[in-house]
Structure formats: structure tokens, C-alpha cells
Amino acid sequence: MFRLLLLLTVVTLAAGAKLQRASPPRLDGKIVGGKPVKIEDYPYQVSLQYYGSHICGGSIIGPNKVLTAAHCTSGSSASSLSIRHSSTYKGSEGVVIKVASIAQNPAYNPSTISDDVTVLTLAEPIKDSDIGKPIAMVEANATEGDREAVCTGWGSLSSGGSSPRQLQAVDVKEVDRKECNRSYGGGITDTMICFGSPGKDSCQGDSGGPLVVGDKQVGIVSWGYGCAHPEYPGVYAHVAPLRTFIDQNL
């Protein structure tokens, strides 16, 4: 349940050798080229945990609501999930709250990874005295183009690499939709946006985490080929066109 990592294998044929996809790409999600930060600077960030182990990121969008990616919750029961908030570290400190219910977008398509969004309802609200605070979401009619954003998470520091204990943040720039769509062979839908910068990206373990422009969340870490690949920017669930589903579950 992380960002998409394209796996290739060499298959030798009578006429020569060529590259083929070994199997359907698996979801992976990381912060490459970022820096360690403290939760006080990104109080909306949470760790989504499966039986107590970090699997994805998420963001607080209401007193008892968390936004994450659908591929992070697909196949899981609410009883298996919890979130850790108000902590710089994914495995300690802060407050752990169980998930009461999962509202996974019924339009989510695991083959195309389109409409990749879930709203979690927590078993109890986050206290006003806690560090954890909601982040506003971008408006449904927000325009795209040439934006700079920050992505946070506890994902791997390199493609297939180790995952840090401390929260990481990276600055990325918006990639033109048509250019991104060409890079991914037409796989970018209206519910996706692309961001990336040379040597900087989200990766394994960051899935479901927030992409923020200014003080509003515009994206959810979703997928991509590898991490920080110069030809393949990170792909994020596009919050603006997904607002109808999100708002219905607040």
C-alpha cells in the first residue's frame, strides 16, 4: 500500500531481448531530497497505522476526520486501523486514536489508481489542546498551473531505501498536466495532478499524505514510477475535483 513502483524484467527472445513489465505495478509511497522537520510545523500530518505499524500518511481535515488515499485502506477493516497524531515520529509519542469507520471513494479504480481518496472517521475527536490541527482543503474550482507545494511524510529516503523515524518535508513544483500525461502514456486522469522537482519527490511510505500549497491541501500522495525519477513526476490525487465526495463524508 504505497506509491507505484514500476518493475521491469528482461525477457530474452529468439530475435533478441526486450523489456517487459513483470507484473502489475505495485503501490509504493517517500520523501526524497527532503529534510527532517517537526510536527509543530505540519500539525495536520498523521501516520496511518495497520495493527500499530505505519503504512501510510494522512491529514487531519476535521475534529474526528482524516484524509488519506483509497489504496491505503483498500481491503482493510476499520478495526485494523488507527492514526498517530501530534508526533514528529511515526512510531512513538503523540496520541493514537482508533479508526471507527472508512469511507472509501466508490469510484476508486485500483487498475488506474483514479479517484484515490478515503475519508476516515475516528473513534474520538482530536482534543483542542493537542498539537494536531485540521488543514483547509483547496476549493473545488481552484485553478491549476505553476504552483509550488510541500509534501510531508515518513516514507523512504530513496527508492526502495530505508524509512526514517522523523517526519520529512520536501518542496516540489507543479508539472504541466499534458506533459505529465505524456510521460505516463495517457494514464493521468482528471482526478490526478503531478508535482516534482529534480531529485525531489514523495515515495514508499508517504502514500495518503498531504500535498499543500500555502495553507491548503491540494493533493494526496498517490503513485508514480519509482521515486524522484527525472522523467516521471509524482502523481497525487487531485483534491479539487474530489471535494464533492470528501465534503459528503465530513
From TrEMBL:
One of its GO terms (biological process) is proteolysis. Residues 31-250 form the Peptidase S1 domain. CDD domains: Tryp_SPc. SMART domains: Tryp_SPc. SUPFAM superfamilies: Trypsin-like serine proteases. Keywords: Disulfide bond, Hydrolase, Protease, Serine protease, Signal, Zymogen. Residues 1-16 form the signal peptide. GO terms for molecular function: serine-type endopeptidase activity. The keyword Disulfide bond applies. Coiled coil: none annotated. The keyword Transmembrane does not apply. PANTHER family: AT26814P-RELATED, POLYSERASE-RELATED. Belongs to the peptidase S1 family. This is Peptidase S1 domain-containing protein. It comes from Photinus pyralis.
